[in-house]
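Quick sanity check, Protein kinase domain-containing protein:
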Amino acid sequence: NESIRGKFPIKWTAPEVLRQSIFTSKSDCWSFGILLWEIYSFGRIPYPRITNFQPIQDVIRHIEQGYRMEPPEHCPLQISHLMSACWELEPTARPSFAEIVNKLKRFIGY
């Protein structure tokens, strides 16, 4: 739906939200993974290979076919693994926010 383009931050939105409008903490987890990528890339725009002018169906297809962003240069391995976990296609495979907090605490030595 082209009208959604102006209302949704497509590149930050989980595939199940784009396809079925299913919002859960697991779809928020997907977005958190994108935020981590933005932080470690020093504010670059996510999915540099996907333009804002591509139809939503193309974006969904890329994601469902396994396309994920590479970790930013100098991104710590633990953070890279966390990003990847946040971007699991199956929402139930993504970490909970409690798990994310624990991983981040271990990462910073808290």
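Posting the structure with no commentary besides this: The helical segments are 15-20, 25-40, 56-64, 77-86, 97-108.
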